[in-house]
Every structure is written in structure tokens, then in C-alpha cells.
Amino acid sequence: MTIFSDLESEVRSYSRLWPVVFDRAENSRLFSEDGRTYLDFFAGAGALNYGHSNAFLKQALLDYIVRDGVSHALDMLTVARRDFLETFQDVLLTPRGLQYKVVFPGPGGANAVEAALKLARRVTGRQSVVSFTNSFHGMTLGTLAVSGNATKRAAAGVPLTLTTAMPYDGYPGIGETGPRHLDRLLSDGGSGLDRPAAVIVETVQGEGGLRTAGAGWLRELADVCKRHEVLLIVDDVQMGCGRTGPFFSFEDAGITPDMVCLSKSIGGFGLPLALTLIRPELDVWKPGDHNGTFRGVSASFVTGAQALRSYWSDGTLEKSTRERGERIAAALGAIADDHSEAGLEVRGRGFAAGLRFATPGAARAVCVAAFESGLLMETSGAAADVAKLLPPLTISNDDLDEGLDIIRRCVGAVLARSK
Amino acid sequence: MTIFSDLESEVRSYSRLWPVVFDRAENSRLFSEDGRTYLDFFAGAGALNYGHSNAFLKQALLDYIVRDGVSHALDMLTVARRDFLETFQDVLLTPRGLQYKVVFPGPGGANAVEAALKLARRVTGRQSVVSFTNSFHGMTLGTLAVSGNATKRAAAGVPLTLTTAMPYDGYPGIGETGPRHLDRLLSDGGSGLDRPAAVIVETVQGEGGLRTAGAGWLRELADVCKRHEVLLIVDDVQMGCGRTGPFFSFEDAGITPDMVCLSKSIGGFGLPLALTLIRPELDVWKPGDHNGTFRGVSASFVTGAQALRSYWSDGTLEKSTRERGERIAAALGAIADDHSEAGLEVRGRGFAAGLRFATPGAARAVCVAAFESGLLMETSGAAADVAKLLPPLTISNDDLDEGLDIIRRCVGAVLARSK
Amino acid sequence: MTIFSDLESEVRSYSRLWPVVFDRAENSRLFSEDGRTYLDFFAGAGALNYGHSNAFLKQALLDYIVRDGVSHALDMLTVARRDFLETFQDVLLTPRGLQYKVVFPGPGGANAVEAALKLARRVTGRQSVVSFTNSFHGMTLGTLAVSGNATKRAAAGVPLTLTTAMPYDGYPGIGETGPRHLDRLLSDGGSGLDRPAAVIVETVQGEGGLRTAGAGWLRELADVCKRHEVLLIVDDVQMGCGRTGPFFSFEDAGITPDMVCLSKSIGGFGLPLALTLIRPELDVWKPGDHNGTFRGVSASFVTGAQALRSYWSDGTLEKSTRERGERIAAALGAIADDHSEAGLEVRGRGFAAGLRFATPGAARAVCVAAFESGLLMETSGAAADVAKLLPPLTISNDDLDEGLDIIRRCVGAVLARSK
Amino acid sequence: MTIFSDLESEVRSYSRLWPVVFDRAENSRLFSEDGRTYLDFFAGAGALNYGHSNAFLKQALLDYIVRDGVSHALDMLTVARRDFLETFQDVLLTPRGLQYKVVFPGPGGANAVEAALKLARRVTGRQSVVSFTNSFHGMTLGTLAVSGNATKRAAAGVPLTLTTAMPYDGYPGIGETGPRHLDRLLSDGGSGLDRPAAVIVETVQGEGGLRTAGAGWLRELADVCKRHEVLLIVDDVQMGCGRTGPFFSFEDAGITPDMVCLSKSIGGFGLPLALTLIRPELDVWKPGDHNGTFRGVSASFVTGAQALRSYWSDGTLEKSTRERGERIAAALGAIADDHSEAGLEVRGRGFAAGLRFATPGAARAVCVAAFESGLLMETSGAAADVAKLLPPLTISNDDLDEGLDIIRRCVGAVLARSK
């Protein structure tokens, strides 16, 4: 493994938790080159909602490559791009009564957020943005400024300005009244909070400890934004594409954000793709105002469109995720109950779930123990105090149960040790 | 085509110059769905140095997908990642005597630049950065701040701070003495130019009108940086991977930048990948200080490694690019001579070449006429006054000559019209 | 009056409320050139705590000018400067057990705050600052950034960055737990609130609606700052110099700020002077790091030293302010009781008092009516909903009662009208 | 002297060069408390153009204080304010055909510049400002950002943004073509220089080494500003009020700035006052958009108006300054000629003159020697390489000659020593 440590920057992280060289992968299983099998409750940090090497997507991709489909095309018109757009319209937007225009802002989630912030500022003529405690939106200068993690913020090397973090739902003390607090500050000409261009929010904080925003809280937030003519951006990069059940994680709350950021699983096969959806009235950009080399990745168009057709033409996957999401929650609840003295807290929604540990280091220890038992899962939260489950939505029931059982055992072992 | 105009943001640009739907592509040829063939002097804005659907890369990619190679892995250890790193070391770094550590900063060139700026600020404890007139480094907040284009800067919606643009080589009046001017400002305690963390420069300004920095100018710049302990970053996203002849565009100048940004053709097949190379001493990052979902794209590792093996194990491609680059320059020089009254100027280096037109609109008109003649090429520069040639390095001599001939004819027609 | 409207910018404000030309003034009385007399409950917005043309100060000033004392001296050593410093030390610091070094940062309160923020950032190496809702600290770029008023912030023409406003004591919803909320945000590595260099606070918000911070709240704030190694700056520009009773407004809370900003009445006679007091350990500045032309105004040194000797050598003035402050509060309370249906709220502390009106425009109407009755007082708060009393501390009981009676009558008339 | 070192911050500076306690002063003479007399070629850094304790001004001030004239009045209407405005209009503006509205922005020069920048940004809707190498405009956050001194900039503790320094007239290499260079950058859509709200310039750089801008250079700069609709601000804080001859230092260049900043000697007697003059069309402020406690200092109104009447009702002072300015230049030229091997350079204009020394430390040594000979003068420039003469305009010929002679002798002694 010396080439990794010799040649790569010390900034690498996952390889430290899982010091093994992976070779192949199928659905919820990864295979290392030394012949071991790992159950994947990590799923590419949410980029592999349809599992590894998904057979439907794989075939579509192979066909496209074999026939020399255009592989790279910036924002040129291609058959693959058209097919993706039509499928996106027909399978997702139209049935949900959603009207959005699509921006392909660049290959990753940070590009989707950068584009949303940029357009929000352009449209409103305002410069500041409100985000939330424990948010995570990316590592570029614009997206880091709306992210909460102090260590990553400090790594910017420059002050991150023009953003203010408000308390997220459930934040101790005042989280639940967050939207009302924001309303008051925006209504008060002396509050010192400049009226922002936009509010950016995750419905579940994937990197921020699996905290969740309630439907009522989100609706109140949407109302406050509307009242003050502030744009509401939902960053659905990790929670979209069905991770919590519905395709868009905000569907259950009954809100319609002004902008939506998608990436990770939108390409389906794990290849980069990102979208920023914007209300048509907001499309004030002139040609070329925002550009970039990898704005449309044909391979991702092909597998992304296939994923929409295979999994979102009917409600099967959504129903499965909702039902099995409850199974996950129940299993985690049972683990928490087994160790009531330890004050475990179940977090998350759907297939984005977590167990929060009061004991420092326990969550990490559980993940290490899980790895030794053949299960991949990571921690979440600035304090790394949450063991996070993010299985592929396509995982079999057997694999899901096996994974949950490993977690149960590992938690037991770790808590026993820490007594 | 209505789905494109109905559903996509007005920000799309290339599709306006080339209103045709492309389907397949091979090396230097694109095929539209209505059966027409286009000669490609655009090459994915430099992302397709090895041509479309390159057979070596295609086979490696198909093999990898067929055998269910891990498609997505963040910064986990994989066989594909290791192979890429080893090849990068063996084929590129070692033979050139270069010692760099590799950061995979995210999927696109902007990520490579964001990471470089971030690390430069962190290492030096300074916050400002010097860039150059007519530079282009990306569309995220951090990279836009070091880019010169006024329209794209304005689209940010916020002031772009902590950066100062110095005159690039050849900039009217003072460009040639740019490094000396910078030296004086940094030596003068009253100049008002804060000592920067880094200077970021392109050796040829791909988006900035194909202006070129001379070898002496670059060496002087490197010396000034060294003297003032300012880091030198070469953004080789467009000019690297052999575009001007050598793999790294700065090789001929004999300088060793502190950091190098690569993307576009580094993945080989047109799929996203980006690298930031850093001098080992600069690797002060802690694990996870910078992260992201698409930091290692396995498909790009596979095709990128194959491209290095196929094209950079010996000097064949480099020699060809240098020799044929002179052919391009000669052909453009002949066109300029044919129209000496029009004051055409030949720009660029190697396979990044351009013709600068004094008449407003002429360069665009040439590109439009070229498209009508079956040739794809775009303009460059904030004033769009340069017709830019960026053919695949693997183009056949026949295709190259055909394209140059089309340009010759189109320039003649456009200039005749504008008289 | 046309010269005023012809030649002065529209930005002038007080002259609109009081459209009369003043000529002379004595203690709590102003005399217009047309022979009318006005009772002054405005006192130069707090710059005239010792009244107009105070006889002790006037004589000292005349003596100094007559004998050709140095009038202007930057930070050169002068007899006047020495006398001021010695008096400041002997009369104020030593008896209170306070150890501060003195910075003369420039002529006005904004200079005192700019210097404090500058030094706090320098000492801590951090860049952001926490202020409070409805704060007011000045009109320069640095001080406006920590001020809450939206209109004045917008007038900056640039975004005001590196500052975050926290809820002040009593702010609806969460103000009372403000320090605890700040503590939590600073303890939470994911909160998105960068650890600030300093917290800047007013004990009573003179421009922000006469809101007051309780002693316990201030102590808790001081504790939080200490725990997180954040510097605590008290802006005592308006509330210092005895306005609320004790010389320093924070004395009753039992806290010792790391820095204190003084101006307005510190010069005594209404001439400019400003001081920034800093804990000795914070004095990291090198000679000349901060400079300016009017850092030491000799005339103000002379009258300022005399004021300290005349009014702060014993506790007479402080006692009077406390006792008569209660009389003011009682009188305002009686007015509020008289109109219990109107929901009037008594605000402030000591000789900085206010009546908050729920009815928009009522506070302004009271001030207009007061002017017509020969009393000068202004509104406070971003919504101008507080009628503010700021009489000279040296006002006679008769004048004080007369003024309070005018207010009683004006409030009655205004509320009767608005029914 | 221990009270000064014990109680004052280390930031104090002049007292280190002149470690003596001054007591009284008359015109060009300062008297220390130990009975020594000093000739003043410093004049309060330009705040005492009419000398110390000027008899005309002194009498007016005493009369005003004796009769209990209103001493402090914010922007209330007063007899003193009206008299100042009328005199300013009649004596200065009308005879010169200048149309400006007056802002009283606060007590010091920094306030005048802060207000100008604020208004320029507000009017244009643009945020950045162009300043010049070696400029000095103040110590507040907004004014420091347009100042060149690296040490003072670093003391801000935050990055100073939204400003770019262009080469001043005579700056090595490109200074002479500065306006043309600015024109090119503003005309080039790819230059990376955002179109600024304003350009701020000093006609002679009082703190920046007494560099001067030529009349042609200033006119070209004014033309460039006009062409690009950028506001031109002349900071005349130090060079205005007749320091270079005419009242406004830009009169000889024949330009009419959009805004002019005045302070220092505008109050006449050394008491604080500042003005921002703005073209009437720029007066877009609403009442109270900018405010402050010491916006109108009555004492300064009284002495300032008297100074205008006494010294600017006819051309006597201007003529004297021009003629004697030439005498100063000739004397300095003769000193330079005497030491032609030392490469002395005469700098400045009118009564703002300097000798630039190539030898590090020589300028400071000359000032130290001068002090020992009873002459006060300071260095100028970031490198402190210029010995600066700034005598009162009212100095007698004898005192002027005596001072020049001391300088001649001190230069000789210092250069002899350094051989």
C-alpha cells in the first residue's frame, strides 16, 4: 500500500478507516483484492443508492460506450443529454407537478450549490446567505462558507464571509423555533442580520450528525422565506434520489423550494453528475454566465436516465425505502433500548440513519469494529459521535438484516469495553 | 430540440453555436443524429486530447465495467486508484525528476484550483493571491476570484476579493516586465499589494485569447516567487496533458512550480478527474481537511492510466505535437499573411492555437462559417476576438489539413464580407 | 436657513426635527437666535453629561487657550496630556482597582471601536467579531459591521463581513439565554460560528432602543468569553462617563472587560476625544501601528481632566444620577400607568431612559410635540419607537421635573390623538 | 515622563522622536516645560497651517467660549455652523466656480474618506475602489484598505479587500503611464480589474514619501475616470488648505474632482473638523444614512471660518506659499547639490517638501539631529527614507531660513558620519 501513503496527500481519510484495497463490487457488497467480502452500509456516501455495478445501469453504459456514444460534450446537444432531460421531465417533474429549469453546473455537488448561491445572489441583488448549524454543502470557497464544520472551515485559509448559520431544527435551546427566530430577525430593522439572498437547508443533515428537520419546521421556514422574499434552496445532494423515501426529500413536507441541488446518486452508477433545479422565473442568466468543462457527463446521463426509468417509473422503490427505513429505525431503537444506560439516540430518516453516542470515541469504535466484522459504515457529525448507516436502497433484506445484526453486536462490544 | 430550450437554463452556450444533436464520435470526428459528420477542432475544450472514443482507453474501460470493478470509492483504496498512482509516478514524475504529492481534490479543474489556493493559504498563513490579466481558473467562488472575465465575475453576485490581477506576458504597456513589476511591488513596503500566499498562472491562456507566457518570463516569475516566499501554482488544466507538446506545459521553461493543477484530459476518455500536485513539504493537511464525493473516479483512473501508458511511455506523442504544432502555426501564419491588411495575429503554442482578429465579430463569424463547413471550433478571449484551434493530439494529418483548409477558406470569406 | 439646505448634504438629520438656529447654551438650556429657550434632554447625544458651557470646564479651557497652551500635538508629550493621564489614573482607575493601558485612537467613538477591534484581531489572530442585535458602534466600515441598523448598514455600499449579531438580553424568544446560546455555538465544532476575536457589547443600547443588559447576563457573557478565550469589549461611548450612575456602566455588573471604548463626554466640554482602554497584556502594538492626526485633543485633555476632578473625585454625581435616575424611571412608569391601554414600556437605566410606544410614529410625535413645548429629545431604535431622555447629569431638579412634565403632557396629547 | 510610558499604549510614536514635554506654542515655535524652544517644521502633520495659537483664531475662539456659544451640536443648526458654511461658500467655492455640497462626516480625516467611499459605492452600485501605491488615507477599516503601508495594513488583523493599488505618478517602470494603464484595464473585459466605484488620489503623498502627481497625469486620470464613469476623489486632508499654494491642491491641474476630502487645517486652530465635498448630483443620501456625534465641532467652525476670512479672502497667503515654496525647493536643491555623491532627491511641492535619502536610516538621523538642534521635523514614506518639511504657512522668513539652515547642517553631519 506504500504508493498510497508515498504519493497521496495526508488529506486522505476513508482509507485510514478501511485499510484494504478494494477491487470489485456488486450491489451491497465490496470485494477486496485479497479475497474478502464487505457489506456496504456506506454506499459511496450516498452516491450509490442503486448499489454497486447495478445490472440495468451497467448494461446501458456498456451499450453506450460500445457504440461510441459521445463521451464528453460540455453543454453541447447530444442524444444522451436529451434522453436524460426527457426522462427527468417525464418521470420526476411532471408527475409531481414540479416546474423547474435545469442547470448542469459542473460535475459535483459543490458545483450545484455554488451555482444555486450564485444565481440567488444575482436574482435578488443581495449578497448574504443563511445556512444552519451543522450543515454541510461542500469544500469550495462558496460552499464551505455555508458549511458548519469548524475544522474544514479553518482549512480554507481565508475568512468565510457573507453567511450566517441559524439554529437547525432540534438545536438545543432554540432550534425548534428557528424559523420564527429568523422571521423576527428579518422583521427587525435593527437585528444586524442583513436580508439574505437565500436560505440553504438540508432536510436531513447527512454529514452533520443525521439531524432531521420536521415537516412543520420546513413549512414554517418556507413561509418565512416567502414572506421576506428570500429564496429557499434545498441541498438534496445526499438526501435526494430516494435516500429518505421519496425522490426529493422535501416531498413529505409539502414545500416547493426555489432551487434544489442534486448530485451523488443522480448519475446512478457512481459517476459524477450534478444538477441545480431552479424555478423558471429565476432563470436570469445570460448564455455562458456560468460554464465549465464537465457540466454534462454523457455516461452519467445514460445511467442516470436508466435509473429513473428502472426505479422511479412507479412507487416500488419509494415504498420499499419507507418500509425498510422503519425497520432500520426499529432495529436501532432496539439497540438503544438494550443500552438504555448509555443514552443512545436514534437519528435520521429512511435509509439515512444513525446512532448517536454520548461517549466520545464510541461511534468511531463501532465503525472500526464493524469493519473488522466485514461491514463498512462511517461516523457523522463534527464530533464524529454518530455511527451512520447509508445502505444502498437496493440492498437485499438478508444483507440489511446481517448488517443491522453486526451493528448490534459491535455496539454491545464497544459499550461493554467502555464501561 | 425543444426539450433543451424548455428545460435547460438559458445559461447554456455551446449548443447555440452548434445547434445540432450529436450522437456518436470517433477520434477527431463527431456524428450528429441526422447523419452529418463534423471535424472536431474543439476536443471537449481540451478534455479530449486523445480523441473521442479512443480505442485503447475504450477497451480498458469496457473491461473494467464488465468485471464489476469498483465504480465509486471516494478516497478509499482501490486497485484502479493504485494503478493510476503507480503509472503517474513511473511514467510522468520519475522520468522528469519531479517530486510531488497528489491530491484528488474533486472531479473538475475548479476543484484542483480551489484545493491549491486553499492549501497555499493554509501553508503560508497569507490570504491574498496574485493572478493575471485574462486568466481563467474556474467558476466556483474561489476560482472565479482569480479569473479575469468581467461578465463571469459579475455573475458571482458578490465581490470577488483577496486577489489581484497582474499584467500577463505581452500585456500592452507593461506585460513583458510583469514579473519585475511584481517584484518591485512586493519589495516596496508602501505598495499596497499585500504579500500573497501564491501566484497562479497559465503558461498559455486557453480561455484568455491564447496569449502565451515566454520561457524567460516564466523563469523570472518563478524567481520572484521564490525570492518573496510566495508559492507558484501552474494551472495546467487546459495546457497540460501534452496540449502544447510536453506533458506539463511548463517543462520547456525549466521551472518547477510549487503546485500544479490538472484535469480535463488527465482522465483520458472525457470523464471527470482532477489532480492537484503539491511539493511534498507543502502537505500540511490533516486527514479530511478537504474532502468530497467524487475525488477519485475509478473509470477515469482506468482510462487515465491507460492513456499515460499508451501515449507517454515514450516521446512519440510529444514529438508529433511539437512538429505538427509548428505546422498549425505555419498554416495560420500563411492565412495571416494572405490578409496582411486585416492585421491578423497568430496566437498560442503547440496544439493550442488561435487567430486574433481586429474586426469585432470576425472570430465568431469564422467559427459560424466553419460549423457550416463541418468544422467545430470556438472563440477565445473576453472579447471573443480569437478563433481557437484545439484539435485532438491524435488527429490524423489528413483531418488536420482538412480543418486548416476550412479555416483558411472561412477566414477569407468572412474578411471579404466585412470589407 | 437656506444656506443649510443649499449647501449641506441631505444626510443631515437633527436639524429636521429641530428647525431652529441655536446660538448659546448653558447647562440644560439651549437658546436659539430668535430668543427662544429650549430644555435639553438630548445633551449632545451623550456628549454633554456635564451640561453646556460648564463653568468649571469653561474656565479651565479659557485659561489654557489664553496662555497659548499647545492646541494640537498628535501623540507628542504635552503638559495637558500628562495632566489628563495622571488624573485618569488617580481619579478613575486606581480607586476602582482597574489596570488598563490607554490608547488615544482618534477623535471620535468610532475610532475607539475601530482600534479595539483592530487590536483584538491582532492579539488573537482571529478575524470575526460577535456583536448584538440592535447594537450601535459607529459609521466607519469597521464599526458599521458590528452595528445592527439595517438602513445604515445598507448605506455602506459594500457587504459588512466578519461579524455576527447575537440576541441581546431580552431579545424576544432567546435573548435571556444569549450568553448560553453563544457558549453552545462556540463549544460545537459544527455550529458554523467561527471562534471570534472578540465580543463587543453595550450595557445599555443608547441608539438601539434603550434596551438594557442585566448584571447576571453580563457576568455570564464575560464568563463565556473567558472560557473560550474571546476578548470582551464594552463600548461605553454613550453609557460611560456616569450616564447610568457609575463612571463605567459595567461597574455594577462586577465585570472587568478586556477593552473599554470611551468618547462623547470623556472630553467634558463637547469637544472630541476618544479612548480605548486595554488590558496591559494586550498591548502588542508596535509604535505607529495605529496613528492619526487628532489622537490627542489638548482642549479636551484640559476639560476632560477638569471634569474628572470636579465630578469624580467623590461619589456625589454618581449618587445623584442613581437617585434621580430612579425618579426618571418612576415618572415614566407613572406615564405608562396612566395609559395602560397603550402598552407603553419603560426602558433604560439611570439618566439614559426611554418610553417605548407600540403605535408606529408615536415616539416621533412625542418628540415633535416636546419640541413645540420647548423640550429637546429624540427617538431611539431602528423603528424609532422609543422616546429617549438623555438629560445632562448636572441638570437641576426643577429643569428635570419640568422636562418630565412636558413629556407627560405630550404623551397624553399624542395618545389622545392616535385613538 | 513615566506616566506616559506606564499608562499609554506602546503604539505611541512621535513622543519617541521628541522625548520632551511641550507646554505652550506660538506660530512656528513650541516651548517645552523645561524652557527650551523648538522651531516647528511639522505643524501638527499639516493640521496647523496657520501656526500655533494663531491670534486671529484665538480671539474668535475665546469670544465664542466666553459668550457660551453652543459647543456641541451634532448636525443641529447653529449660528457657528451657518457662519462657517456661508464663509466656505463665499470665500472658497463661489470665487473658484466650484459647486459642491458639504458633508460633515465626523471629526477627522478618516471620517471624510470613509464617507466619500461610502457614498461613491452607494451612488454607483459598485464596490471596489482604486487607490495608488504609497497612498495614505486613514486608519479605520475602510480607509486603511486604500492605504499602502504594509505595516499598518497588517495591523488591521483582517484582510483589506475591495481595493486595488495602481502605480502612482513616477512609480518606477510604469507610474507615468498609470492613468493609461488604468484605462486599458477598465476597457479590457478580461483584465480582472472590476470597474470601481471610485479612484482616490492625493496630489502629493504626504505620508507616502512626498511623491507628487503632475498636472498632466492628474488630468489624464480625471479623463479616464470620466470616460469609465468612475468617481474621482481627491483626498486633500493634508495637501488642502493651502499647503501646496492654492487652497485646493488640485486647482493648478485644472481638474474638478467628484468628491474632495478636507480635514487637518480646515478647523484652523488644530481642533478636529472634517468635510467631504460632493458634487450636488451625488447627494443621494437619505437623512441619517450617515451620522455621528462629532460631525460639527462648533469651536472648529468658529476658528475655521475665521481662518478662511483672514487668509483666503485674497491671494496673499497663496502667493506667499508659492514663492516661499520655491525658496524651500531651492534650499533643498542646494543641499542635494552639495552632496551630489549621496544621490539626494528633492521631493514635494509648496510647503510640503522633502529630501529623499538613498542611505537607509539617514532621513531619520537627520530628524534626530534636527531635534537636537531645536527643529521638529519627521520622516515620510514606508521606508522612512524622506526627511519631511511641513512648516506653518504663516512662518516668518527668519524662522524658515533658520530651519532650512539647521537642515543643511544636519544633513551634512549625518552624511559625513555615514561615509
UniProtKB/TrEMBL annotation, chains A, B, C, D:
Pathways per UniProt: Amine and polyamine biosynthesis; ectoine biosynthesis; L-ectoine from L-aspartate 4-semialdehyde: step 1/3
First-tier enzyme category under EC: transferase
Record GO terms (molecular function): diaminobutyrate-2-oxoglutarate transaminase activity
Superkingdom, taxonomy of origin: Bacteria
Cofactor(s) required, per the database record: pyridoxal 5'-phosphate
One Pfam family from the record: Aminotran_3
Keywords on record: Aminotransferase, Pyridoxal phosphate, Transferase
Enzyme Commission designation: 2.6.1.76
Gene3D superfamilies linked: Aspartate Aminotransferase, domain 1, Type I PLP-dependent aspartate aminotransferase-like (Major domain)
Family listed: Belongs to the class-III pyridoxal-phosphate-dependent aminotransferase family.
Protein name as it appears in the record: Diaminobutyrate--2-oxoglutarate transaminase
The species this protein was found in: Streptomyces caeni
Upper taxonomic lineage: Bacteria, Bacillati, Actinomycetota, Actinomycetes, Kitasatosporales
Gene (name only): ectB
